């Protein structure tokens, strides 16, 4: 590790401190090799029935897929990743802005505490809808944060709509079904510094996303693991690809046709890793329930209707920040 870059930070250590080592049963242990069967879908080719089939098959088998040639420019992505790297390097990440108002939450590694054990991660999250209003309360530092991140999210939103509409086609819902009541509800950005022993630590605990879909950028450093057939599989990292996953709200709308898979993030010993997760979610007052078109006498509704904000509240979907994020 080059001297000076990591300074005297909490992660600049030779050994994992005991308050970062998870108990035996939760530790990742030996990391599995990258799974080469997780679908990589190329949007640079024709957007046709075959592409729709690939998306649906991946969403049923894995709940995850990667997309290359997705149309969001490399420059916008690079700019956004650089802004977040700069943000995490700031010596002070206070969420009070000059007018005393903010809608974002920064979590240091010790903000998370389960039985005295911390995640090997720092995090920032904030709401993103309606974008023009929300962004006025995002971080003021780095100076270009609001401009760069809002540009990124506008592009990601377009890409997310394309995915949702292809999914609609694939499962027999009218195109545009989600347009009226979906939004980029939350941006969740994770910074995982290099860790001296990744077998002991976790970047994010196992969880399902409380979204319709999540569009994740992870750069070229792997660390995402997905639960498949009761085993963790490792998702490969492809520069500039997006990882897309089905969240539990789309599992419900699809009446269980599509699968929201459990996932987690592990650390690595050589490189810092950044992941940018944009959660496209139902709007807070939306009633989430299986779509009428997918409920029949032979295939009755498998989930009860719930108002999305109630779901978020009851499941504490955004961890300790759940209440703050809902008030924003
Ligand atoms: O860092 C990752 O790859 C996973 C991030 C994630 O699952 C999340 O932010 O919800
Ligand atoms: Fe997630």
UniProtKB/TrEMBL annotation:
Belongs to the iron/ascorbate-dependent oxidoreductase family. PANTHER family: OXOGLUTARATE/IRON-DEPENDENT DIOXYGENASE. Pfam families: 2OG-FeII_Oxy (PF03171), DIOX_N (PF14226). The keyword Cytoplasm does not apply. Residues 180-282 form the Fe2OG dioxygenase domain. Transmembrane segments: none annotated. Keywords: Iron, Metal-binding, Oxidoreductase. It comes from Daucus carota subsp. sativus (Carrot). InterPro entries: DIOX_N, IPNS-like_FE2OG_OXY, IPNS-like_sf, Oxoglu/Fe-dep_dioxygenase_dom, Plant_2OG-oxidoreductases. PROSITE patterns: FE2OG_OXY. This is Fe2OG dioxygenase domain-containing protein. One of its GO terms (molecular function) is oxidoreductase activity, acting on paired donors, with incorporation or reduction of molecular oxygen.
């Amino acid at each position: 590790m080059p001297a000076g870059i990591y300074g005297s930070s909490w992660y600049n250590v030779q050994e994992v401190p005991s308050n970062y080592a998870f108990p035996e049963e939760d530790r990742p242990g030996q990391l599995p090799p990258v799974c080469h069967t997780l679908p990589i879908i190329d949007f640079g080719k024709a957007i046709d029935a075959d592409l729709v089939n690939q998306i649906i098959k991946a969403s049923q088998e894995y709940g995850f897929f990667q997309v290359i040639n997705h149309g969001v420019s490399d420059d916008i992505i690079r700019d956004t990743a650089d802004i977040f790297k700069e943000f995490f390097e700031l010596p002070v990440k206070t969420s009070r802005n000059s007018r005393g108002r903010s809608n974002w939450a920064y979590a240091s590694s010790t903000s998370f505490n389960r039985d005295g054990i911390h995640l090997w991660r720092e995090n920032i999250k904030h709401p993103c809808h309606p974008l023009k209003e929300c962004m006025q309360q995002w971080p003021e530092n780095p100076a270009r944060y609001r401009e760069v991140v809002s540009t990124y999210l506008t592009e990601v939103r377009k890409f997310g709509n394309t995915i949702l509409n292809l999914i609609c086609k694939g499962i027999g819902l009218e195109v545009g079904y989600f347009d009226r009541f979906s939004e980029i509800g939350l941006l969740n950005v994770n910074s995982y510094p290099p860790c001296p022993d990744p077998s002991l630590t976790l970047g994010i605990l196992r969880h399902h996303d409380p979204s319709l879909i999540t569009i994740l950028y992870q750069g070229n450093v792997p660390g995402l693991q997905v639960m498949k057939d009761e085993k963790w599989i490792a998702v490969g990292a492809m520069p500039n690809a997006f990882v897309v996953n089905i969240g539990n709200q789309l599992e419900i709308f699809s009446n269980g046709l599509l699968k929201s898979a459990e996932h987690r993030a592990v650390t690595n010993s050589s490189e810092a890793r950044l992941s940018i997760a944009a959660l496209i979610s139902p709007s807070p007052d939306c009633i989430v329930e299986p779509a009428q078109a997918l409920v029949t006498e032979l295939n009755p509704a498998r989930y009860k209707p719930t108002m999305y904000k109630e779901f978020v509240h009851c499941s504490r979907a955004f961890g300790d920040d759940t209440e703050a994020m809902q008030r924003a």
